[in-house]
Amino acid sequence: MNVLTPPSINYVTGKINAGNLVEKVTLLSSLDGIFADKAAYASLPEDRVIYSVEMLPAESAEGELNFGVSHIEAGSVGDEFFMTRGHFHERIEQAEYYFGSAGEGLLILQTQTGAVTIEKVVPGSIHHIGGSIAHRLVNTGNERLSALAVWPSIAGHNYDGLKVQGFNVRVMKDEGGFIITECF
């Protein structure tokens, strides 16, 4: 009988070791309208990598799960930290788990009615993202923020649900680290 070697994860770096990895890179150019400081946004190279996602391939079917890692680079657009676009799930009732792996940052959680909760993301932290909750990762540190994720493969991503209103808070640089500002 053969013993298979499954994919593995480096918990220190968040890097998945697998031969058939799916990878997606998000450049600054695809985040137009996300950051508040338009002049600072325009001054940065369009091909600057803001974040990337790597995941194991999965069948999109009821009962199947996705496993992936989001890596948000350290940096800022003006005084606003690099972050993911953020999204609801297409299947709005679907939940997700994040697990902090490397770096430090924040997880912004926002209900459909706009109520916001913020959780600190650090190596070893566990975050339950309930259904009907938009979520965004923000890197508030000086090194890459990596968070492992597990979610139903049928959940999908709905980025349009936040295009009009967006998230109700922004995370800005401050002398002591960061400050959270409301933007209703």
TrEMBL record:
Pathway assignment: Carbohydrate degradation; glycolysis; D-glyceraldehyde 3-phosphate and glycerone phosphate from D-glucose: step 2/4
Keyword terms: Gluconeogenesis, Glycolysis, Isomerase
EC assignment: 5.3.1.9
Catalytic activity: alpha-D-glucose 6-phosphate = beta-D-fructose 6-phosphate
Domain of life the protein comes from: Bacteria
SUPFAM superfamilies attached to this UniProt entry: RmlC-like cupins
Claim: Cytoplasm is one of the keywords in the record: no
Magnesium as UniProt keyword: no
Record family assignment: Belongs to the archaeal-type GPI family.
Protein name, per record: glucose-6-phosphate isomerase
